[in-house]
Amino acid sequence: MKIVFAGTPEFAAVALRDLHAAGFSIPLVLTQPDRPAGRGMQLQASPVKQFAQQHGIPVAQPVSLRLDGKHPDVAAEAHRQLRELQADAMVVAAYGLILPQSVLDIPRLGCLNIHASLLPRWRGAAPIHRAIESGDAETGITIMQMDAGLDTGPMLMKEAMPIVGDDTTGSLHDRLATLGGRMIVEALQRLESGGLRAEPQLDAGVTYAAKISKEEAALDFSLPAQLLARRIRAFHPFPGAFANYAGTTLKIWQARAIEASGNALPGTVLSVDAQRGVIVACGQGALQLTQLQKPGGKRLAVAEFLKGFTFDDARFGVG
């Protein structure tokens, strides 16, 4: 079975690795153009490109696939490459470019997407973040037959995974990537043999996972502690939740919601203890901060952090 693969980050690289290990013919990989990264802002290849180059798989990096977009010549060349390959299917995982209908129609069996949610819940760009932020008990992987809509195509396979209490986007991402790699291999094998049928998505239960912005990672202590604790986990490792204390922006990497009595104003530091953490009043309950980072410093457990930072009578910012 001949597969074109389209993906960019580590989540996609895991699936490409599993498809390669399963023996699928992969004559071409599509991935985003190299981007500046790191302190030196040097151009860096995506994880998908790195894997492809290590295993001798040809790579194309078009800036667009839309014939009616800003780069029609680039898109036309990509279309030509795809048509000439006569692939059986295209697998798409966190690619980052819109696939127009003219591309979706090229592979014999169409284009399959590995989506990190239980569709129709959390269509869109950030399904892992939003599932944690919203307090979902589970998420999972959906293998979807792509259409021109935003994650609206019929579903070929779906498998759930629990979200445990200390899950961050980072930890959940890694487990879902592993699940997605296994499922796409099975889906292609069953699709080729005719043992897989598509199921339309229901209109009920549709939610949209908007792209994460750095601004929304700012903690507002007037909100309930339970919500803030979920946001800290959802924005870990990127963009990293932060809060302002006495003019200093502190990253908050680990915290949990606890009960609190009294009428302290949100943002008030209720107690500071090297073992228990920094307790901060919220709109409801309190937040127990246990891993923090100051500007230019390292992420530290609270006992180490308190050796170089003092909490006095100031309050964390709100609103």
UniProtKB/TrEMBL annotation:
Name-wise, this protein is Methionyl-tRNA formyltransferase
Top-level enzyme category: transferase
- PROSITE patterns the UniProt entry points to: GART
User: What reaction is this protein's catalytic activity?
Assistant: L-methionyl-tRNA(fMet) + (6R)-10-formyltetrahydrofolate = N-formyl-L-methionyl-tRNA(fMet) + (6S)-5,6,7,8-tetrahydrofolate + H(+)
Q: Which UniProt keywords apply?
A: Protein biosynthesis, Transferase
Gene Ontology cellular-component terms for this entry are: cytosol
One Pfam family name from the record? Answer: Formyl_trans_N
